[in-house]
Specification:
Helix content is 39%, strand content 19%. The relative contact order is 0.12. The strands form two sheets. Strands 1, 2, 3, 4, 5, 6, 7, 8 and 9 form a nine-stranded mixed sheet that branches. The protein has a six-stranded parallel sheet with strand order 12-11-10-13-14-15, sandwiched between helices. It is α/β, with parallel strands linked by helices and 394 residues long. α6 links the parallel β8 and β9 (184-186). The chain folds into two domains: 3-189 and 371-390, 3-Layer(aba) Sandwich (Rossmann fold), CATH 3.40.50.2000; 194-367, Rossmann fold (3-Layer(aba) Sandwich). α7 (225-237) packs across α11 (338-349) and α10 crosses α12. The protein has 13 helices and 15 strands.
Length: 394
């Protein structure tokens, strides 16, 4: 039986009937691996729960069985419990078969075990390893962000360099972390079947007021949503176009962003929806919006932005990570610059014709991420690590 193990940095919870996740890495996600492998065993943090949290969905099922790693929560908890985490990773890596490491603490510990055993592995890179450390509050308080970021960046470089093969979410991260052997694939985990694509929007769609802005993603510091809220304030109080903002997604900054909007006097113009299920509920919100804005401070390849583009949404984003691979230069601003972001929004909002052109162009770009295109690349990558584990060339 071909059993794949995938080590990743994500928190799952376990109740009596199974393991659950907050939408990311659900059972349908893992089932994609079953196109090539007989079974998949995620290696990830799993903590006990008395009941399923609201909005969470099943992650395990037939063909998907977890290697549970101790569920540390936060920077200090990890420092106290890392020996136990290491032991759990060692047990997971003791089994034979192909392994994919997705950058993070869990994959680092698994990597050390594989090096000790001189076994091949595949590596998945989803962003700049060092930049994420700079947004961790405890690391910032200690003044260690730059040092830890440097260490994580170089560890990721070594993991990629010695991998049997590697996948990347964007050309940007591929250039950051190349392999020695050149066995590299670039693809996104976004799921875009035919049903997710809408038609390009006409000029008439953009002649109403207010302009409805949407941003979808985890409400975490590195996503820069506070920059977007401040940009909206500048528009509303500085004589710009009339706009509303809808922030979609869960995260640690929900309360902070709500308070920020109220403190800035625009609480009635900013809506935070919380977690929204993928599929029809999310597509409905995207279809009601007029402009997608992604103000990330650091980014790999934003799936939410691609999904918005597939619905024909014009978009503005920051020059972070893989975003410039999706949007044209005149739709980009520097990360963290709320004034520039407000000016860019006002600029595109003034021209319904330009918004319609952006819609058509974004839809064309999104079609390059169609599910069939991505699956072809994924399967080639997965077959490569299976062949490397078997000692064959692929």
């Amino acid at each position: 039986m071909r059993t794949l193990r995938v080590a990743l940095e994500h928190h799952f919870c376990e109740v009596e009937d199974g393991i659950y996740t907050d939408l990311a890495y659900d059972y349908a996600y893992w089932c994609e691996y079953l196109d090539v492998f007989d079974r998949v065993r995620p290696v990830a943090r799993v903590g006990p729960a008395e009941s399923v949290p609201p909005g969470w969905v099943r992650a395990d099922g037939p063909g998907v069985c977890f290697h549970k790693v101790y569920d540390y929560l936060g920077f200090w908890h990890f420092l106290r419990r890392w020996p136990r985490v290491l032991r759990d990773c060692a047990r997971a890596m003791a089994e034979p078969g192909p392994v994919i490491l997705r950058m993070g603490n869990i994959s680092l510990f698994c990597w050390l075990q594989l090096l000790r055993r001189r076994r091949p592995y595949a590596f998945e890179v989803v962003g700049h390893a060092g930049m994420s450390a700079r947004t961790v509050r405890n690391v910032q308080v200690l003044g260690l962000a730059r040092m830890i970021g440097w260490v994580l960046h170089h560890l990721c470089s070594w993991q990629a360099r010695y991998a049997a093969c590697a996948s990347y979410v964007s050309r940007y991260v591929r250039d950051l972390y190349p392999t020695r052997n050149g066995r590299e694939w670039v693809f996104s985990s976004v799921r875009l079947p035919d049903a997710t694509f809408a038609e390009a929007r006409s000029v008439d769609r953009f002649t109403h007021s207010p302009l409805r802005i949407i941003s979808v993603g985890r409400l975490e510091p590195e996503k820069g949503h506070d920059v977007l809220v401040r940009a909206v304030e500048r528009l509303l109080k500085g004589g710009g176009p009339d706009v509303t903002l809808c922030l979609v997604g869960p995260g640690r900054q929900v309360d902070f962003l709500e308070r920020l909007a109220v403190d800035l006097g625009i609480g009635d113009r900013v809506e935070l929806t919380g977690r929204v299920a993928p599929g029809e509920p999310l597509m409905r919100l995207l279809d009601e919006a007029d402009l997608f804005v992604l103000p990330s401070l650091t980014e790999g390849m934003p799936r939410a932005l691609i999904e918005g583009m597939a619905r024909g949404l014009p978009a503005i984003g920051s020059r972070a990570g893989g975003i410039p691979e999706l949007l044209e230069a005149d739709c980009l601003v520097d990360p963290g610059d709320s004034t520039a972001l407000a000016n860019r929004i006002a600029e595109v909002a003034a021209s319904p014709e330009r918004l319609a052109r952006m819609s058509a162009r974004n839809l064309t770009v999104a079609r390059g991420y169609h599910q069939e295109v991505m699956n072809e690349r994924k399967h080639a990558f997965w077959r490569c690590i299976q062949a490397a584990t078997d000692g064959r060339s692929e």
